[in-house]
């Protein structure tokens, strides 16, 4: 961990201003991902802006009947929030499937969206990685990529986005609210929030330098049968191989978002449109264009199977 | 029943109100970088004040110092263990303001005004906490290295169940209750490579039974 | 005390303290965090500086140049030590690679430097400023590719009996399968750690090491010192499983650092450094051939094993149990060792058997199915009461294998198992049962102790034996209490200090039996002294109730000890009983799993087993050893694998997020039954080892249960869901 200067933020706008003013500044909230990476010299901020004093830890009802979730609401609190449990159970379930209780007690809503990949080559500074060191190459494409992405990848990067929460947020059409260094606020639909790697896998989101997430809003509840299914190598405390968030409507329609498959939470409108035709129809569209390796090719079959499991569970709950 | 420890489900949250109005007050000691202030040159130490096991402590720390290293190396409270230093094992679990966290993934200077409970604050060999006693009786350990983290985690975990925080295995999100399956899921952030898991569950079950 | 004849009746047989499930005497220290581990010795080294290891970024080659100037100039840095300024270093006998590399580099993350600074933060940050220019060389990293170049290791010659080559092809039923197991990491919770200090020319290390005397010897070789100038202490060890059998880089770097800066230095390996810097259990390729009659009686059994290690290393002896476990006139075992430039392979819990049984016990399951014989019955039919390679002239000292199979099956409800796979469903779960034999050799080692009784009658035991979670403190206290007729609370046990008599140490599951036998020997000597001081005939004296009784006279122990106390030291030395008798520990594992019919995820629903391991010294801690080892077997079956990147030559998943070990949620209720057994040829304790028995076969029981659940047979460990759904798809096709 390199030496850094440290400040406690006074207001969201001031934090954003400070971040823009300092070369190599980073916000720190829960710290559960950033400090992990700083110890390994993967993140090397020169200045840390502690945003914890900002509050931003409330969940409130919006005028539209949705929820506005403060950027610093901890994963535990969001999962346990009564409105979330009742009206957005898929979000509770996704949060509870992630990490451990200790980590969820610290990890924040905004930080979770910004979680970085678990690609083992990203995590090892002696190896090439275009995300960590742009232009150095990708060790993963021909390496140990069993749990890396099959969709939305590029020749530069096949990293996955590791978050469970973000998959549910994508399913729910969440909107990310931010404040920029110039004090302006904007709202970014989550569909546009995470970027695909292309030639610039080190640029992971739509945020501009210094821009601070202040909240995530959810539209009105959708009702229906909500399921989050995470498939992993051990029963708990492991990243997803594949995860599927689903809402089955009373009308027979459904929507799906996928984790573990892509550099961002994966959702294809056209796949949702064929939900009535069953899991294979959904999978055919959702997985179209998948680029697999001998090690991660199983993810296509696993996705189909997980979708089938969700349909079966929906039937069972009827 | 909800608990104020879990801010998101407190009455305050239900009533709504603006985030700024509800922001937690920041307690700063003299010289500490209060809101908006910042530390000087990189590598300079920063003062920080927090309570550990009921005792208020003033420290001057390299801001890179994790809470775990502050406890183990500066305060010489070595009961909290470093197993992985990356949030992957749970050996460093302590209770901060009533919540269990991995002390390895948080900076000490971020804990201004906080109330930290470590294994040393739960009990001593002469006066064991009920959870500590249950671990002895049920042989809920072997090498002992993950044990303080398991115990801190278990104590806070029972509070979480009490407060109605659901888990991955909770069948009905609206109804949270104690079960062995709940314990196994909720304790999964504490790895025991000796794998005294069954005995740890038995110890926790015992304490939960006494509490209820 | 020489142990060269079977034990007769002795005070341990009273079973007033030994054999009782006492709570651990070190429990309160562990649950309060007050037991000091190696990195936590503020009490003895309050001014320790911090060392941070710099590991090699390449697997094989050499250092062209190493530039430490920026690191040395960094804030707080006190010294940077590399091969250039470390001075000449020897190499321990038990290490394959050098603990400080350079200029030659033998494996990835081999230590190339240690940075010593005032604070941990400074040392860690300055480590990145050590600039190394590498000359990288091609290496051999792929066991499969090197298999054909593997050679017979000198240490483990081929064995056999009868004529396997002729008999196998003629057998009515033949199994011929190849199984693979990956590299495994010990992943004990406490990282390798040492605090070191020099006083004059003498070195003191507080370290995490299972074998104190070995550590002293290896430090002496490394630093070219006399053993008497080295003091090693390891009173608490946060797990080892073999990882801490040997001197490792933490100790060498801490000692080098302390020497350089003239004050104590402590070094802990960072978790991500451990898998590649330290040792691991090597991967194996195993071919098993079993020829049997139609009713499953084995006539020919062959087991060939390929593994790899650095030049000068050794094989993973995964065929060793196959020499002894089942009958069969025609037999062969062979190990072949390939040269690999991966990190050093070495012992991990039950080296040999743990992975050997992952293969053999699945092969037996396949044989059971091929013959249409129940798997438990198949094993009973193939029981043998003598070493089948040597013949009836070498009987087992005690072999209650069949009892384990029968009683274990009963307790588990094995009779409810359906022989045809895929018959039982519970919701989305396909449910199956599997079983496997457990077998681990019983090893014994010379072990010494010093026992004293002070003027108040308190007993103190001192031995360099270690407690790595095994319960040594407690079983040693129980032994002394039993021998001297005092309550457990009167006994203080001091362990893990090279100033104490040399013990067996903790390894190969020999620790508890050997070390308590050493304490038995010292207590026997002490009893003789005390009896004499009391004016008794030692043979007639009865030690009980804190007193010595003989011929109607009773003298309190403290009076016999005298005001200044009485002390005795002795060691147990084992004769040829382990050669005249095959000695082993046995058991039977049973397991029920659910396999998700959609996703192929496996969840172990329940596990149980019956085990015979001689006298169980403390049923509570022994049971804990067994359940923990069973869980490690679940890990080996379902998730554990160090993945080799054969391009770079290293283990890619080198942390605890990516190298999965079981968590709470992976491990269900476990049931353990100990079969009553006293083995008089093992030691005066009539005990045997139990710390490794539980892992032997446990993973195979899981694998067999998966097959029974879903009909997919996987011979390539771990049995992850990608392989299971692949098998499901094949079956459907």
Explain how this protein is built.
The complex is a heterotrimer of chains A (318), B (212) and C (733). Chain A has 12 helices and 11 strands. Chain A has helices spanning 12-21, 34-39, 75-80, 82-87, 89-97, 101-106, 109-113, 165-171, 190-193, 269-273, 279-286, 298-317; strands at residues 5-8, 25-28, 47-50, 59-61, 67-70, 175-179, 185-189, 212-218, 225-231, 242-248, 254-259. Chain A has a 5-stranded antiparallel sheet. The N and C termini of chain A lie far apart (53 Å). By secondary structure, chain B is α+β, with helices and mostly antiparallel strands. Chain B folds into 3 domains: 1-34, no CATH class; 44-86 and 102-118, Ubiquitin-like (UB roll), CATH 3.10.20; 123-212, DNA polymerase, domain 1, CATH 1.10.150. Helix content of chain B is 32%, strand content 12%. Chain B has 8 helices and 5 strands; from the N terminus they run ααββαβββααααα. In chain B, strands 2-1-5-3-4 form a 5-stranded mixed sheet, sandwiched between helices. The longest helix of chain B has 16 residues, at 147-162. Mean pLDDT of chain B is 86; it is low at 1-5 and 7-34. In chain C, a hairpin with a 2-residue loop joins strand 23 (547-550) and strand 24 (553-556). Chain C starts with a strand and ends with a helix. The mean pLDDT of chain C is 98. Classes of the chains: A alpha+beta (318), B alpha+beta (212), C alpha+beta (733). Chains in contact: A-B, A-C, B-C. At the B-C interface, helix 3, helix 4, helix 5, helix 6 and helix 7 of B face helix 1, helix 3 and helix 16 of C.
């Amino acid at each position: 961990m390199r030496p850094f200067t440290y400040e406690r933020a006074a207001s969201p706008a001031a934090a954003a201003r400070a971040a823009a003013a300092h070369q190599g500044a980073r916000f720190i909230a829960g710290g559960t991902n950033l400090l992990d990476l700083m110890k390994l010299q993967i993140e090397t901020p020169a200045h840390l802006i502690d945003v914890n004093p900002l509050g931003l830890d409330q969940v409130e009802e919006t005028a539209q009947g949705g929820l506005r979730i403060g950027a610093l609401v901890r994963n535990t609190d969001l999962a346990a929030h009564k409105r979330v449990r009742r009206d957005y159970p898929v979000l509770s379930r996704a949060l509870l499937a992630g990490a451990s209780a200790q980590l969820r007690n610290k990890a924040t809503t905004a930080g979770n969206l910004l979680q970085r990949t678990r690609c083992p080559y990203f995590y090892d500074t002696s190896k090439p990685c275009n995300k960590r060191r742009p232009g150095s190459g990708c060790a993963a494409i021909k390496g140990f990529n069993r749990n890396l992405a099959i969709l939305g990848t590029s020749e530069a990067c096949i990293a996955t986005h590791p978050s469970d929460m973000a998959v549910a947020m994508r399913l729910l059409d969440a909107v990310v609210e931010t404040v920029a260094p110039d004090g302006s606020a904007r709202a970014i639909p989550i569909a546009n929030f995470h970027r695909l790697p292309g030639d610039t896998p080190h640029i992971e989101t739509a945020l501009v330098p210094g821009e601070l997430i202040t909240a995530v809003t959810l539209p009105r509840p959708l009702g229906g049968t909500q399921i989050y299914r995470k498939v992993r190598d051990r029963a708990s405390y492991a990243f997803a191989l594949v995860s599927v968030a689903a809402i089955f409507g009373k009308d027979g329609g459904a929507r799906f978002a996928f984790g573990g498959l892509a550099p961002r939470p994966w959702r294809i409108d056209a796949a949702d449109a064929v939900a009535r035709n069953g899991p294979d129809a959904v999978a055919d569209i959702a997985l179209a264009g998948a680029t697999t390796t001998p090690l991660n090719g199983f993810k296509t079959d696993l996705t189909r199977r997980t979708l089938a499991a969700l349909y079966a569970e929906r039937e069972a709950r009827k | 029943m909800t608990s104020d420890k879990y801010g998101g489900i407190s009455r305050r949250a239900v009533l709504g109100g603006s985030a700024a109005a509800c922001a937690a007050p920041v307690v700063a000691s003299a010289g500490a970088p209060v809101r908006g202030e910042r530390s000087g040159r990189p590598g300079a130490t920063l003062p920080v004040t927090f309570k550990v096991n009921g005792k208020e402590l003033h420290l001057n720390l390299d801001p890179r110092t994790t809470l775990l290293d502050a406890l183990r190396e500066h305060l010489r409270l070595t009961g909290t263990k470093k197993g992985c230093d990356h949030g992957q094992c749970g050996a460093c679990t302590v209770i901060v303001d009533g919540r269990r966290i991995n002390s390895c993934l948080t900076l000490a200077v971020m804990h201004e005004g906080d109330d930290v409970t470590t294994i040393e604050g739960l009990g001593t060999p002469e006066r064991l906490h009920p959870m500590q006693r249950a671990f002895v009786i049920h042989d809920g350990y072997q090498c002992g290295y993950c044990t303080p983290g398991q115990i801190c985690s278990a104590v806070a975990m029972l509070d979480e169940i009490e407060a109605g925080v659901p888990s991955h295995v909770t069948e009905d999100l609206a109804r949270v209750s104690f079960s062995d399956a709940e314990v196994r899921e909720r304790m999964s952030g504490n790895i025991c490579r000796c794998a005294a898991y069954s005995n740890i569950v038995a110890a926790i079950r015992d304490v939960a039974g006494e509490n209820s | 005390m020489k142990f060269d004849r079977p034990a007769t009746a002795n005070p341990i047989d009273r079973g007033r303290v030994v054999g009782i499930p006492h709570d651990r005497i070190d429990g309160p220290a562990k649950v309060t965090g007050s037991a000091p581990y190696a990195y936590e010795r503020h009490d003895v080294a309050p001014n320790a500086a911090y060392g941070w290891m710099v590991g090699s970024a390449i697997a094989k080659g050499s250092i062209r140049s190493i530039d430490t100037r920026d690191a040395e100039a960094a804030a707080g840095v006190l010294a940077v030590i590399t091969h250039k300024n470390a001075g000449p270093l020897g190499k321990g006998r038990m290490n394959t690679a050098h603990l400080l590399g350079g200029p030659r580099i033998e494996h990835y993350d081999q230590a190339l430097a240690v940075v010593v600074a005032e604070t941990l933060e400074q040392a860690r940050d300055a480590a990145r400023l050590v600039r190394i220019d590498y000359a990288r060389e091609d290496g051999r990293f792929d066991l499969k590719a090197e298999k054909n170049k593997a050679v017979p290791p000198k240490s483990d010659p081929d064995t056999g009996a009868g004529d396997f080559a002729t008999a196998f092809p003629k057998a009515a039923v033949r199994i011929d399968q190849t199984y693979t197991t990956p590299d495994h990491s010990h992943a004990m919770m406490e990282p390798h750690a040492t605090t070191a200090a020099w006083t004059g020319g003498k070195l003191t290390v507080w370290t995490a090491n299972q074998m104190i005397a070995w550590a002293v010897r290896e430090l002496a070789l490394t630093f070219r010192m006399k053993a008497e100038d080295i003091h090693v202490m390891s009173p608490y060890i946060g797990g080892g499983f073999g990882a801490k059998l040997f001197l490792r880089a933490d100790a060498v770097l801490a000692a080098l650092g302390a020497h350089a800066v003239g004050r104590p230095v402590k070094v802990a390996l960072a978790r991500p450094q451990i898998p590649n810097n330290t040792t691991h259990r090597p991967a194996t390729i195993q071919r098993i051939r079993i020829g049997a009659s139609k009713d499953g009686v084995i006539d020919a059994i062959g087991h060939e094993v390929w593994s790899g290690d650095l030049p000068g290393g050794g094989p993973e002896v995964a065929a060793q149990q196959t020499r002894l476990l089942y009958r069969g006139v025609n037999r062969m075992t062979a190990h072949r060792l390939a040269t690999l430039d991966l990190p050093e392979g070495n012992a991990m819990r039950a080296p040999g058997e743990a992975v050997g049984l992952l293969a053999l016990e699945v092969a037996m399951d396949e044989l059971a199915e091929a013959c249409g014989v129940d798997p438990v019955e198949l094993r009973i039919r193939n029981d043998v009461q003598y070493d089948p390679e040597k013949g009836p002239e070498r009987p087992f000292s005690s072999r209650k294998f069949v009892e384990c199979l029968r009683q274990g099956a009963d307790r588990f409800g094995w009779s409810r198992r359906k022989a045809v796979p895929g018959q039982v469903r519970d919701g989305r779960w396909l449910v199956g049962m599997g079983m496997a034999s457990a077998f681990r050799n019983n090893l014994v080692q010379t072990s010494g102790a010093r026992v004293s009784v002070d003027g108040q009658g308190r007993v103190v035991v001192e031995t360099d034996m270690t407690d790595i979670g095994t319960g040594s403190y407690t079983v040693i206290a129980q032994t002394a209490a039993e021998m001297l007729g005092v309550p457990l609370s009167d006994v203080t046990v001091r362990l893990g200090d090279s100033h104490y008599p040399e013990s067996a140490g903790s390894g190969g599951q020999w620790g508890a039996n050997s070390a308590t036998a050493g304490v038995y020997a010292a207590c026997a000597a002490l009893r003789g002294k005390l009896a004499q001081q009391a004016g008794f005939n030692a043979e007639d004296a009865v030690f009980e109730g804190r007193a010595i009784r003989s011929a109607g006279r009773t003298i309190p122990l403290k009076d016999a000890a005298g005001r200044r106390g009485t002390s005795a030291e002795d060691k147990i030395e084992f004769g040829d009983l382990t050669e005249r008798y095959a000695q082993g520990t046995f058991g039977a594992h049973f397991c029920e799993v659910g396999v998700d019919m959609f996703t192929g995820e496996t969840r172990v629903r329940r596990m149980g087993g019956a085990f015979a391991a001689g006298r169980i010294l403390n049923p509570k801690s022994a049971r804990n050893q067994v359940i923990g080892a069973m869980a490690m077997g679940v890990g080996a079956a379902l998730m554990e694998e160090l993945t080799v990147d054969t391009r770079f030559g290293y283990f890619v998943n080198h942390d605890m997020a990516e190298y999965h070990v079981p968590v709470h949620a992976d491990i269900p209720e476990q049931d353990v039954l100990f079969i009553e057994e006293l083995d008089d040829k093992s030691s005066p304790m009539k005990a045997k080892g139990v710390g490794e028995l539980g892992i032997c076969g446990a993973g195979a029981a899981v694998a067999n249960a998966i097959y029974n659940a879903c009909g997919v047979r996987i011979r390539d460990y771990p049995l992850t869901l990608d392989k299971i759904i692949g098998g499901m798809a094949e079956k459907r096709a």
